[in-house]
Design goal:
heterodimer, A: 112 residues, mainly beta, seven-stranded mixed beta sheet, four-stranded antiparallel beta sheet, B: 112 residues, six-stranded mixed beta sheet, 12 strands, 51% strand
């Protein structure tokens, strides 16, 4: 079975540019989570969805970050405008049963 | 609130040595407990889980037992291999909103 799919795997962009990260959850999983991982702060939950509806976005750092889940097979995390401090690895995870999350390979974002 | 504390690393072992990584937690309700493993440049992989007191999770020679009386979920492996070198994360899933709380991670290096 295919796991969680994320694209791109690596993204290098310049400060001020828009960045869009993509995630395809495992089929049949009804929860989707977005995380950010840095050396300084470890793993941080940004936002999560249940049945395509955002449930908790309290971890989104600021208004520059937005996330959508237009259908059960696809989610995006957008940063506009990007800043160097957004450089991190961004993970998507989906879960079934609800308590068991499966992580994607991550997108390594570098903002110059 | 929920929290997870795991032993600080890094841990360096010789091949075939015994590995133990301590993990304790604080939680409301009855959380599910997990160990995830992260190899360099990869996402988090679910290693094992336990959903109730006295459950033992096991996978790839690793084991951990859900101890409610000591609020612990220590990870053990009897004979490690070089391929076990990775970062190990202890985590719990909140039984109400399914958000994961992670420990800081323990870096394990196994030398041949």
């Amino acid at each position: 079975d295919a796991g969680v799919i994320q694209s791109p795997r690596h993204e290098v962009t310049e400060m001020g540019q828009e960045v869009t990260l993509r995630c395809k959850p495992i089929s049949g999983h009804d929860y989707l989570f977005w995380y950010r991982q840095t050396m300084m702060r470890g793993l941080e939950l940004l936002i999560y969805f249940n049945n395509n509806v955002p449930i908790d976005d309290s971890g989104m750092p600021e208004d520059r970050f937005s996330a959508k889940m237009p259908n059960a097979s696809f989610s995006t995390l957008k940063i506009q405008p990007s800043e160097p401090r957004d450089s991190a690895v961004y993970f998507c995870a989906s879960s079934f049963p609800a308590d068991t999350q499966y992580f994607g390979p991550g997108t390594r974002l570098t903002v110059l | 609130g929920n929290s997870v504390t795991q032993m600080e690393g890094p841990v360096t072992l010789s091949e075939e040595a015994f590995l133990t990584i301590n993990c304790t937690y604080t939680a409301t309700g009855y959380p599910s407990l997990f160990w995830y493993v992260q190899y360099p440049g990869e996402g988090l992989q679910l290693l094992l889980k336990a959903t109730k007191a006295d459950d033992k999770g096991s996978n790839k020679g690793f084991e951990a037992t859900y101890r409610k009386e000591t609020t612990s979920f220590h990870l053990e492996k009897g004979s490690v291999q070089v391929s076990d070198s990775a970062v190990y994360f202890c985590a719990l899933s909140d039984p109400y909103d399914y958000k994961l709380s992670f420990g800081a991670g323990t870096t394990v290096t196994v030398r041949a």
